[in-house]
Amino acid sequence: MTEAPPALRGNRDFRRLLLAGVISQTGDWAVGTGLAFYVYDLTGSTLSSAITLLVSRLPDVVLGSVAGVLADRWDRRRLLVGTDLLLAAGLLPLLLVRQPAQMWIVYAVALWAGVLSTLLAPAQKSLVPQLVAGSQLVRANALHGQCGEVARLAGAMAGGVAVSAGGLSAVVLLGVAGFAISAALQASLRVPGRPAPMTTVGGQWIDGLRLAARDPGLRLLVAFMMITGLGEGIFGTLAAPFVADVLGGGGDAYGLFMSVQAIGGIAGGLVVAAYPGRAAPGLLLGCATIAFGLLDLALFTYPLAVPAFWPALVLIGLAGVPGAAMTAAFTTLAQRVGGEERGGSVFGLLGSAHATTALLGTLLAGVLAGVLGHALGGSAGIVGTLCVHAGGLLIAGLMALTLMRRPRG
After folding, report:
1. According to its UniProt record, where is this protein located (predicted)?
2. pLDDT tens for residues 116-162?
């Protein structure tokens, strides 16, 4: 019988996991931002930039489920430590890049980092229930989710400053330091024991598919991830055109727009984490997703009536609150479905579903925005396609509310 994890307050190991996540992801954002600028500056080619991004994201689609199985089979703390150290070592070949002919090194490093990053997500999320009491999972996941938002703000800025001041070498050293510190913090975690898997890796992978086939809760979570992944692909593709062509802003406006989105997400996570009660994650997920969709719908359509930029900042900042609540509730539900034994497999499956539809959303955004723009004229194609994203959130939120009808085991 394993020892119950401690409550959230005063939880030394959970604090260290949060700090490690912030440091590691800040380094990741710094490398991604600095490398993107360096690649375009070195080659002058948008194709090279696109290839770098593609090879870094492809492992999420291909290896997500495998990464989840490994998170269940292996010691999660050691997996996180080893992955951070391999990420640090894998950045060092970038120090050799001096000319466009060496871009193959960049592609290889991007692929290596993409594979290892795919291993991190299911291991981190399935480790949280081992460190935190079950009644505190929603609050813990809200705090854990803010690591990415904080890292996004700090890392993007640090990466830009580093590449401007010291070139690619400064970016690499910043990333190596971040991953190394994260590994040291996670190596000190005291993780309680968990049930040993009863099947082989292949058998566990098949069991994961069977679980998805027979568990309506997991099927709903997969569908939710597919819908929201499609929307994130659309938004990620059209955010810059929306600011430029619909709102009439420049690069500085786009940077402010994305920064306010991250700040809103941080505020939302703190609101959820500060809630002292035991929020029902199914109800929270449904209501938060619907609120997120309504705010996004207002964000995308208000320029048709009010030609001003400031409402966009207000709306995208407000959307961060339900967005953070949605993420925390979804993660909690996935942890409950998978349990300690199959948590990694569940998150791997969900991650693959999300990554696949996000790529499809990227393709859909380019095609649909062009078709609608040609048919309706002006920027209507951008607005119309973004409204598809908002409508998907409303549908996903209504689907999530059905989780409240399921008895809890």
Report:
1. Cell inner membrane
2. 887 777 777 777 777 877 677 777 777 777 777 788 777 767 777 77
Among the ranges given (124-128, 191-195, 263-267, 354-358), the one the predictor scored with the smallest mean pLDDT? 191-195
Q: How far is CA 86 from CA 74, 117, 119, in A?
A: 16, 10, 11
CA-based nearest residue to 397, from 235, 297, 286, 273: 286
Q: 27: closest CA among 81, 87, 83? A: 87
Q: Which residue has the tokens 């930029």?
A: 309
Q: Contact, 325 vs 284, CB < 8 A? A: yes
Token pair belonging to 153: 């703000």
Tokens of 229: 């992944």
- Do the two domains 1-194 and 198-409 of this chain adopt the same fold? yes
What's the pTM value of the predicted model, to 2 decimals? 0.71
Rounded distance between C-alpha atoms, residue 313 and residue 298, angstroms? 12
Residue type, 392: G
- Of the pLDDT bands very low, low, confident and very high (cuts 50, 70, 90), residue 47 is low
Query: In sequence order, which ranges of 242-309 are alpha helices (DSSP H)?
Result: 251-274, 281-301
Residue ranges of domains in the chain: 1-194, 198-409
Task: Please tell me the distance from the alpha carbon of residue 238 to that of residue 212, in angstroms, as a whole number.
Answer: 32
State pLDDT tens for residues 256-270. Answer: 787 787 788 888 877
Q: Which CATH class is domain 198-409?
A: mainly alpha
**Fold of the domain spanning 1-194:** Growth Hormone; Chain: A; (1.20.1250)
- What gap in Å lies between CA 161 and CA 37, rounded to an integer? 11
CA 162 to each of CA 227, 246, 256: distance values in angstroms, whole numbers, following the listed order: 37, 32, 20
Q: Which of 217, 244, 250, 230 is nearest to 393 (CA)?
A: 230
Contacts for 50-57 with beta carbons within 8 Å, 24 or more apart?
51/107, 52/106, 52/107, 52/110, 53/110, 55/107, 55/110, 55/111, 55/114, 56/32, 56/110, 56/111, 56/113, 56/114, 56/117, 57/114, 57/355, 57/358, 57/359
